[in-house]
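Hey,
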Amino acid sequence: MPPPWTSQNLINDFWSQHLSPNTPPVKASAVLPKDFYTTKVSKRPPSSSLPSVSVRASYDAAVAACTKKVAHIVRECQAMNLKYTDPYFDLDDKEDCMYPLSMPERKLSEDVRPNRGLNLYEESGGGERKGHLLLFGNAPEGGARKAPLPPSVKRVGDIFDNPQFYVDGASAKDVRQGGSGDCWFMSALMALCNSTGADSLLEKVCVARDQEVGVYGFVVFRDGEWESVIIDDKLYLRKPDYDDLAERVRKDWEAAKVRDDDAEDWRREFQTNSGALYFAQSTHEDETWVPLLEKAYAKAHGDYGAIHGGNVGEAMEDLTGGISVMISTRDILSKERLWQDLLKVNAEYLFGCASPVWDDPDDDGGKDGIQANHAYSILRAVQYKNERLLLIKNPWGRKEWKGPWSDGAKEWTHESIRDLGHTFGDDGIFWIRYQDLLRKYDEIYRTRLFADEWRVAQQWLNVDVPWAGDYLDTRFEVTLDKGAQTVIILSQLDERYFRGLVGQYVFLMSFRVHKKGEEDYLMRTHGEFYRQRSVSAELFLEAGTYEIRMKVAASRNDKAHKVEDIVKGNWLDRREKLLQVGLSYDIAHAKGQPEYDSSSSEDEDEKETPESQPEPPKPQPEPKVDSKPTVEEEIDTAPDTHHQPHDTTSQDEATASGDDNDWEDDNDPSSSSAPTLRRRPTDLDNRPRDFRPRPRDYPPPPAPYVLPRPTEEAGNLLAWSPPRGVAET
């Protein structure tokens, strides 16, 4: 027997200490005090097998709930003769509406003060000046830097001369990005605008409103279900009120006055109509849908800071309930096949694209007019004579492509201008050849839209992630009684809804599809660093039973905030914000808990969930549908990411350089043609039956700690539709 100090024994001892099966879970399942809201939400345990339902089931329920809430608010406000003020996302509370929990405390020396108007702000406490606004961004050490607080807040009726939600309908031309780095979301809005009439995707998101009362209702898609978001009509402005100006600024303004009413002159000049808004604007001075929908999206995620930086594919998923894939332009196998997909834009798919960061950019930070690290929307694809052309829009509303088929290029003729319906002008809309698109953009996002005939099933669960990142023992079984085109999605919970509470681990997912009993796989996916939220595969499956084998790898970012530190640092100074984000965290994580203690003595009358919180999804995840058979496995632990996402550049930066959505399906879930989805038993099923989400406050691991079995929450989503009439990709 070798002595205990041999190299082999020391290595064995190291692994036994650091990869112990008894290592406590790294990811907390709840952050709020025990029995606060979590046990109320967690009374119904999730089923191990869920039937499929119609794709519209969750959407219709969310629309009904949203419409009901808006109608109730209207009656209440009319009775009290008051405009609606959202108690859960009141823009007058600027700190909570602007900054995630992960943001450090603001120093007094960083207060933002208006100057005489030549520039928007004076910043006295450090921080990087970018054009008109100091933007959300990354500090040199990788920490988050705050944007300045908006100087003023007003209601729609006090900003716009003649406010209208739509002016001549919604159009991609309406959208203009403001002072936030959410061009990824703006690009998704522009893509939605291209669908019109009864099938308008934008109208399906903007579902209820009363402009007189000042209440607006929207629906967004989150973690497999649609939910409603209600907001009031307050918006941030770029300039302060006249009475809040510094004395020297007022004197300068009075010296240049045109009339005797200094305050009214100031308001008319700097606080009127769309151009006065701090964040997103419409190109029409009286149109309001763009800033209000952006506000609803910010509220759904907790604050405006939470929607800084992202990719257009995820935003299109959130607004359509579709499934997005990222296509790297350097990895395309068949450019012809991709072109055929692009021709289906606005019908079967939505498309967006993102540009890279160039080593040697032009003076404006881009290349040939294409801005670096920026999201764009693809509005049209046409075969015009011998050219393959695409119509693209920059969400800034300016800065365009300068190559072939750009505005004023030699390729244009009177005939082509008429045939393509194009108008020259620096409005951010331009035509580009297909080969130039593939050369100038490094990522294309394709979002599949699901028609009503699609059916879906889903399941959420926790899984332990092995240190080696191998395929897990936990598998999903999918049974189809008929052959069908199928989309399978493996997802983790959307971390954007609880920024600051995502911890230090990043999870990379992939899966393989096997015919049951066979080792050869039919299809596999690969984890993509920029697509942490989900991975998916689309294929035709014959009748039979299939296994979905998933692989999850974890990596640790020790520079990210620890969840326990955020809780300890905010429980007193930002109590309401911690309750808001913590509730969103706890409700989401409750979906993956296999067992709950049902002996709680709490009374059955649940408190009404604040409007600002995502509608609590059933901890027993109800099936959701998307137009083709789809399996979606949802995993819940996306910590603060290491990478710089695409689409963080704002237009201003470039200038310098309630109710539970309990829903039932009208169709018979026991139909023989519906797929069934089952989870194979694992050691997780052996947990005590009184297991329920609870806060954990484990001590930090010892210094040499390598990777203590992180846990993820995963769900499985399967949608099915008959094979007839299905277009294969």
